[in-house]
Amino acid sequence: MNDAALTLLSATGIAKRFGGVHALSDVSFTIRHGEIYGLIGPNGAGKTTLFNVLTGIYTRDQGAFLFDGEPLDDLKPNDVAKRGIARTFQNIRLFANLSALENVMIGRHVRTHAGVFGAIARNAATRAEEKAIARRAYELLEYVGVAERAHDLARHLPYGFQRRLEIARALATDPRLLALDEPVAGMNATETAALATLLRDIRRDGTTILLIEHDMKLVMGVCDRVLVLDYGKKIAEGSAADVRNDPAVIAAYLGGDIALDLKGASA
Amino acid sequence: MRLLFDRRKNPRLAWAGLAVMAAALIVLPFVLTSIGTAWVRITNLAILYCFLALGLNIVVGFAGLLDLGYIAFYAVGAYVYALLASPHFNIHLPFWIILPIGGAVACLFGVLLGTPTLKLRGDYLAIVTLGFGEIIRIFLNNLSLPVNITNGPQGIYLIDPFSIGSFSFAKTQTIAGLTATGPVKYYYLLLAALLVVIVINLRLQDSRIGRAWEAIREDEIAARAMGINTRNMKLLAFAMGASFGGVAGGMFSAIQGFISPESFILVESIMVLSMVVLGGMGNVFGVVLGALLLSFIPEVLRYTVGPAQEAVFGRTLIDPEVFRMLLFGFALVLMMLFRPAGLWPSALRKRELEARRQ
């Protein structure tokens, strides 16, 4: 199964420090094409840091990412998006004062081309592109189920819709890897179940998903494989069922000797 | 106003409205001439300020980058024109060559200012841009030694007016029974240029580029994560704003015939920014309204405040200039209290302000 052709993203030896804090140390993993890959761990384990390092918001201290066979080196967040990794944020970061539709249209920016002269001349190509952007944005809103509120401001949408809108905006960049940072945080059981369906749909339609989530039921339900971080280190990787029964994972979540040892080692 | 511009819902009314407006704008200079040629000049300057305010609107209104040194680009454009069309170096290039050069040079300065300030926002950016504006002015003041480039504080005079062949924009001419003075001819040229700038502004706003600017203003990190190259987009805003300033500066040079660093002081930058803010940041028509109000009201006051005091009190109690500033300050305070998003705000700005209040 470790065949390179099956691998979409591989990380080797990723490390990130903030002063004396080792937020990530020697984290390695691979994500295969077409899977939903979970990333779990207690609070402060380094999950979001890993996201930020992957998407170029932080620069890593060590290690390398290989995305679709090509290294992701010294890339800015916008370059990472262009390469095909789109993300959402733990604390929703929509363009709050723009409509839902405009939010998704902005997501199309990186896959469209009109420049200043196109914008000013409004030639046939630009007009066609604008139409295509709006059409695609509307399709995506329908896909995530926010189409009925397409013209409402993002900040007027209910919380669950905002989460979905953020996913639509990320999908608008035509990603091959969709990185979601706690997409069901604060949702009730019904909303969570609906989102699980959406995640499966996205995977079915060809986008690989990297999922940070605290909701174990969701993780166990949708993830093909799971990576567990604790104090910036990988403590387990494997199928959801395997990880759930891993003593190190149980110790990390419930506390115990192993977790205390890790704390001592990273300090 | 919206009704007038809504071509889809009410095409006949919209076209009729446009026709009336166009007719009024065409007749305007002749009406103004009958009051006094000075008013045509004032109108021309007002149009130039619209031009400037629309250029600054790209930087401040669209991309949300606070620029307190915008007048520097106006100065650059003005000096490029003055140096290439005056006896100072004895170069006399035609205006349709110099204006694009002035725009391009100003654009270069825009990038020059933009590059080191890319990571700055809000107050910090304002301070750096303010410094930049002063640097340009001080350079213009002092670039007379050891090689005389700008002629220092004395400025450059005898700047060529616009002319095509034997047709000069500065001379009075009688065409088809209508006597057109220099300012009247400039008026039509400026009006045409302003229309072009308005269309450019409107189209930019409603485009892929305009949306990217909106995204940067709303949330820069999210914009980057969505693949928007924030560096290029910000530089583009600075460059576009600056080149509008440069072209306006060239026109100013030609119309005035004389320029000196005096014309490009900090207060001018603040004035243009006030026009953008007062009118309604981000809304093209609001910005035009702001520029017109702030250009005309002081002039009207200049002609009324003094005489009114004479009539009532028999002497001038408050100097008109002082009164003008007093009223100006008062108007800005009132506006901040009652219409903080501007007289005619863009829908987006209004929403942003509401969101901040909640």
What characterizes the major β-sheet of chain A? 6 strands, mixed
- Which stretches of chain B are poorly predicted, pLDDT < 50 over at least 5 residues? none
Strand content range of chain B:
under 5%
The coarse silhouette of chain B is: globular
Write down the secondary-structure element order of chain A.
EEEHEEHEHHHHEHEHEEHHH
Strand order of the largest sheet of chain A: 6-7-8-3-9-10
Helix/strand/pairing class of chain B, anyone?
mainly alpha
User: Biggest interface in this structure?
Assistant: A-B, 41 and 30 residues
Summed over residues and divided by their number, the pLDDT of chain B gives a mean of 87
Beta-strand segment tally of chain A = 10
* Count of alpha and pi helical runs of chain A: 11
Which overall shape of chain A is indicated by the principal axes computed on the Cα atoms? globular
The helical percent of chain B reads over 70%
Summary tags:
A: alpha/beta, four-stranded antiparallel beta sheet, 24% strand, disordered C terminus, B: 358 residues, mainly alpha, two-stranded antiparallel ribbon, 14 helices, 4% strand
Structure write-up:
The complex is a heterodimer of chains A (267) and B (358). With 267 residues, chain A is of the alpha/beta class. Chain A is built from 11 helices and 10 strands. In chain A, the strands form 2 sheets. Chain A has a 6-stranded mixed β-sheet with strand order 6-7-8-3-9-10, with helices on both faces. A 4-stranded antiparallel β-sheet of chain A has the order 2-1-4-5, with helices on one face. In chain A, strand 9 and strand 10 form a beta hairpin. In chain A, helix 3 crosses helix 5, helix 3 packs parallel to helix 6 and helix 5 crosses helix 6. The relative contact order of chain A is 0.17. With 358 residues, chain B is mainly α. Helices cover 70% and strands 4% of the residues of chain B. Chain B is built from 14 helices and 6 strands. In chain B, the strands form 3 sheets. Chain B has a two-stranded antiparallel ribbon with strand order 1-2. A two-stranded antiparallel ribbon of chain B has the order 3-4. In chain B, strands 5-6 form a two-stranded antiparallel ribbon. In chain B, helix 11 crosses helix 12. Classes of the chains: A alpha/beta (267), B mainly alpha (358). The interface between A and B is large, with 41 and 30 residues.
